[in-house]
Amino acid sequence: MSSSARFLLALSVGWAPAAQAACTALTENEVRAIAEQSANALLTDDTTTHRRGWGELQDGFPCLQAQLPKEAWASLLVSEAIVRNALGEDWLQPLDTALEAWPDAPGIPDFLREQYVARDPAQPVPHRLVRPGATLFVDGVLMARPPQLSGLHAVQLLENGYWTNLILVADPIPLAWLVSDEAPPPPPKPPITGRGSLSLAVGLSTVSQSVSVPGTFFGDTGQTGVLTGVTLIGVEPIPSAGGFAVGWDLRGAVQVASIATDASRERTFSPSPLPVPDGYLSVGWMGRGWAILGGAGASRSWVTTAEAIAPYVYPQPHLAVDIFSKRADFGFGGGATPSAAHLRMHGGSAVTAKDGFGLRFGVDASAVFAWFDEAPPGARTASVVSFGLGGTVGMGWDLGE
User: Does a structural domain hold residue 4?
Assistant: First the structure.
C-alpha cells in the first residue's frame, strides 16, 4: 500500500479470533524497534528498510493491545516525512502529527525545519465527548476531549479492557466513539389553557331586608327558599396576546318555593319565583394555573314594601382571582360601589376527564349587599342582603387527564 494512499485500518482486540487473524500481532516493544530501525536505516539512505517497517506498523497496529508509545510513533513519522520529502510527496502531514505528539521529537533535518510551518493546534470537536466508560488516545496521547483531526493520525479507544485502533488519513474520529455533551432539550411546556364549566345549581337562597325604624309599610322582611339555576364560569387566554385573558362569571339563579316574612313578622308561602342573577365580565393576566381579572357587571336583589316586592339591579366593578389544577378549580371575587357590594365564590373538581372534558361537581355562593335611604323624607335607612349557596353538577372543560 502506498504511503500516500488514503486508508482506514480498524480492529478491536475483543473481536473473535477469526477477526484477530486478519492482522499481525504487534507489541509496544516491537513499535519501538520498528521506529529505531527506520531511523538508523535513513542514516545510510536505506529507504527500503523504512518502508518495510512502515508497512509492518500499518499491518500490526489494529492488533496492538496497549497504548501506542508516542515517542516511537513520532520518530517513525519523522522518518516517513524525510522519505516523502525525498520522493516529492506530502511530507507535512507526518511531520505535523509527529510534532503534535512529541514537540521535542529529535532527528528532524534542518532542511525540513526551515520549510516547515506549524499549523494551528487542533480544536475540540464541538459538543462532543468520548462516550462514557471509554478512553481516547490520539497519536499515543491521552485526550480529555476529542480533537478535530486532519492529516495522518493513529487513534485508539480503550473500553472495557479492549482496544480499538485506527490509522486515519484526513478522516475524523468516528462518531460512534463520541456522545453529545449538550443537555437534552427540556420537554416543551404545554400551552397555557384556561378552565370553564357549565353547571346546574341547587341550594338555598335568602333575601333579607332590614330597616332602621321598621314600620308596617316599610319594615324588616325576608324571603327564604330553594335556589335553582345555571352557572357559566370560565377564564381563557387570548391567543397571541402574551398572557392576557378574558373571564366570565354568569349565574342565572331563581329563588322558588319561598317562605316569606312580612313587616308584621307573619310567615306565608310564596310561590312567586324571585330571579337573583349575577353577571360579570372581566379581562386580566393569566399564568399556568392562575388568573387575576378585573371588569364589571351587575347583581340583582329585591326591596319589599307593603305594596309589592320590587327588583333592583346594582352595577358594580368586579375583581377576581382564579386558581386551578388539572381537574380542580377555585375562584373568588367581588366589588363595591357607594350603594352596593357583592361577593362571588365558586369551586369544584372533575371526577372524570377525557379529551379535556369531564363531569364536574362543585359549590357556588353569591352575596349581594345594598343600602339606601327612604325618600322622601329620608329619615330612615335600610339594607338588603341577598345570599345564595348551592351545589353544582355539570361539565368542565380544559381539564387535565
Answer: no
Query: Residue 134 is part of which domain span?
Result: 9-180
pLDDT beneath 70, residues of the chain:
1-23, 216, 374-379, 399-401
| End position of a domain, from candidates 115, 150, 180 | 180
pLDDT digits (tens, 9 = 90+) for 79-129: 999 999 999 999 999 999 999 999 989 899 999 988 888 888 889 998 899
Tell whether 300 and 256 lie within a shared domain. yes
Could you tell me the pTM of the whole model? 0.57
Question: Any idea which residue has 508497512 for its cell?
Answer: 55
Q: List the CATH number of the domain containing 350.
A: 2.40.128.100
Residue from 399, 233, 243, 255 nearest 328 by CA = 399
Q: Is residue 3 part of a domain?
A: no
Q: Which of 180, 211, 231 is the last residue of a domain?
A: 180
Reduced 3-state DSSP string for the chain = CCCCCCCCEEEECCCCHHHHCCCCCCCHHHHHHHHHHHHHHHCCCCHHHHHHHHHHHHHHHHHCCCCCCHHHHHHHHHHHHHHHHHHCCCCHHHHHHHHHHCCCCCCCCHHHHHHCCCCCCCCECCCEEECCCEEEEECCEEECCCECCCCEEEEEEEECCEEEEEEEECCCCCHHHEEECCCCCCCCCCCCCCEEEEEEEEEEEEEEEEECCCCCCCCCEEEEEEEEEEEEEEEEECCCCCCEEEEEEEEEEEEEEEEEECCCCCEEEECCCEECCEEEEEEEEEECCEEEEEEEEEEEEEEECCCCEEEEEEEEEEEEEEEECCCEEEEEEEEEECCEEEEEEEEEEECCCECCEEEEEEEEEEEEEEEEECCCCCCCEEEEEEEEEEEEEEEEECCCC
Quick one: 142 and 204 in the same domain?
Answer: no
